[in-house]
Write a structure and sequence with these properties.
about 160 residues, alpha/beta, seven-stranded mixed sheet, globular
Length: about 160
């Protein structure tokens, strides 16, 4: 495993295998310091889908890092890309735009982008209708299975109804 510390202007340098990208932002521009840690593990091993495991908030600061990692993943041969968002507490609009752009790029090559996400994130993806182009699943196993067979990619099952 290799770790690449990135700023929002750098891209991951990886040639295959498993890579980890780490970014820490410490100043919010108003003199307040905060830690916004993001880790993205890229697994390009084997002939299956490339797997991105994301840990941390996906907001306006971290979305360009996600974009760089997805760009790398879309150029890896294989049937598709799986993004594991199960350890993402916050999923902002810039990250949604990045995911949509990656799905469009993969779709042009008859490949799939699938997402494993918790119920609140799947509900967000459903309400924004992103789940009509990106398969959203409750487990990594389901997302991985769907990405392996993009030609038979079924529509995402609707999320569970909200609590009464």
């Amino acid at each position: 495993m290799t770790t690449y510390p990135l700023s929002t202007t750098e891209t991951p340098l990886a040639t295959g295998g498993i890579h980890q990208t780490t970014s820490t932002e410490s100043d919010d521009g108003h003199g307040h310091h905060r830690q916004a840690d993001l880790q993205i593990l890229i697994d390009e091993t084997g002939d299956g889908p490339t797997m991105l495991t994301v840990c941390g908030d996906l907001d306006i600061v971290s979305a360009p890092i996600l974009a760089a990692c997805l760009h790398q993943a879309t150029h890896h041969p294989g049937p598709g890309v799986v993004v594991n968002l199960l350890d993402v507490p916050f999923l902002g609009c810039p990250a949604l735009a990045v995911l949509t752009a990656a799905a469009d790029e993969l779709g042009r090559n008859h490949r799939a982008l699938t997402i494993a996400a918790d119920e609140p994130h799947r509900r967000l993806l459903h309400r924004t209708r992103i789940d009509t182009t990106i398969g959203c699943y409750p487990t990594v196993t389901d997302a991985f299975r769907a990405a392996r067979t993009p030609t038979t990619h079924a529509p995402t099952p609707p999320p569970s109804p909200p609590f009464s």
